[in-house]
């Protein structure tokens, strides 16, 4: 039995901030050494930060990375510890995403990434080339200054593994193992399978998987499955939190997996910049007959000798790390902690002094308030646990003096968080009261203002210019007048929000500026149920890719677990924009305005994006899923209605506020969901095909019984309208 102590880490790196990144890297090495580890694995592209994007095309970025690596190698950082550092490397005419293995002030090997992430949030092929030469390792000529400083001219470069006394090590460089693309570990013929046959036992996975609701289980199970059948262990390091990208937050949860068991696991969400995960493991590879047979005819993979003993002999005094129960957060906790950490990182790095939120008293803006409240609680908790970096940031942002610092989340919220209820003649007393009560629970500096005067002034100006004054539909006006009057209110709220964010700090003799928070959800974005340049337009939006259904579950959870009891009343209230007059026989409701329910929107969104369905494919799918309750004609009408308004409003996605990425069917056009924004909203060809199918199916009657649906889909048909196929239906199911 051979014993090996390894360390991996969650690092909160920041794209292009080399000082910040080096500080975190050095601290992680110090902690790994203190724990007695002989291997330290860092995240993908940890020296530059993953999110440099087009900065990777600049020679400065690559040169700065080499300078930082030289600094690490000229010091004692790699003495007696095998360190893997992530950085870009130019070889010949190509730029590669690499892991650089270093030991005792020398570079042992450079491993370029073989499978690049190029879907969803990622565009790695824009910046890097995939390494395609598997046959042998090549000699890489080090840059002159690096070569002179290290007294080392060339290093092995390519696909291979390192061999030290008693242990063989291989790198996997992954971006996102559970997204749409198959990369290294998850390709049809994964490298680790071939390398296991060559005797490799230790896999170092430099990862940086973005957070998405309900994804962690799929991600970890992939690693567990990969190690289970081959009697090996994988060490996983991740970038955590901000990447320099306003849209995504990278998961934490660095972990060490041995023979299918997780023996060490880091936190998924944390305000810490550096978090270490250490485990002592033993080589226990046996002799499975089929494994031996396949190994006897394996393709040979190149290796590099490391003249250093990493393993320790058996000692009873050195205890082994035992399997752990994997820690998962519920989706409600993910909504609280993920965006909460993301907001804190954005706040402390942007130089802002706080946030301002237009608080309507509805579910969406109340969810944002609860997330900010959770952020304040996390900050106070970390300070009480002794985190000096969080304390220093909180003192700076909250403008504490005389040795004071945050000890109460409500007091901290009052220093950094403004909420504003912007009421009008169409606002109800119920929403005003809910906003006031919630602001008091959170501790925000709350304002209650009326926008009627501003709206009236604009209408008077319009009347002076045109001689006409628009009326609401309930007062006899047309649809055009009704929509125009609603948009005026919505846009005035956006203008007022930005004015207050820039001037309220000055009013209260505070330095700096406040960031305006948006509060539109993913379903409203998909349907286009928002006014262009209204309060959905902000600096950042923590709920922009979270569904309405998930937000309502979060509100119920937060009412109990975050201590904001008024959220239960907010969740129970029917969603309404309150942009039209309230009458005894009329009250504006979101789902009536949209012509579809939020549950249906989640279904359309998943089918459109995740299952890549156009109108015809969506119709066919829903005939199976909804066919027990609706006729083909009714389903066809619903599909056509959705695509009509989706395409009419698609232009709104081009100016969508940067939002926290949490949902796989987000329609965000800046990066994730790239599509045209000018459509023929009549979809003549596609809708004609649907009409032909409806006729073939005798579309005016229900054709599928529950028993038929169960036999066809192999699932239980519930009483709701959610799609029950894998991943596309019940929003509470994992996606």
From TrEMBL:
Occurrences of domain CN hydrolase (ranges): 4-283
Keywords of the record: ATP-binding, Ligase, NAD, Nucleotide-binding
InterPro entries, alphabetized: C-N_Hydrolase, C-N_Hydrolase_sf, Gln-dep_NAD_synthase, NAD/GMP_synthase, NAD_synthase, Rossmann-like_a/b/a_fold
Keyword Lyase: no
Reaction(s) catalysed (UniProt annotation): deamido-NAD(+) + L-glutamine + ATP + H2O = L-glutamate + AMP + diphosphate + NAD(+) + H(+)
Key word Nucleotide-binding present: yes
Record pathway: Cofactor biosynthesis; NAD(+) biosynthesis; NAD(+) from deamido-NAD(+) (L-Gln route): step 1/1
Gene3D superfamilies associated with the record: Carbon-nitrogen hydrolase, HUPs
Family matches, as Pfam families: CN_hydrolase (PF00795), NAD_synthase (PF02540)
Gene Ontology terms: cellular component: cytoplasm
GO molecular function annotations of the record: ATP binding; glutaminase activity; NAD+ synthase (glutamine-hydrolyzing) activity
Example GO BP: NAD+ biosynthetic process
EC number: 6.3.5.1
Family: In the C-terminal section; belongs to the NAD synthetase family.
Listed name of the protein: Glutamine-dependent NAD(+) synthetase
Protein source organism: Sesamum angustifolium
Lineage: Eukaryota, Viridiplantae, Streptophyta, Embryophyta, Tracheophyta
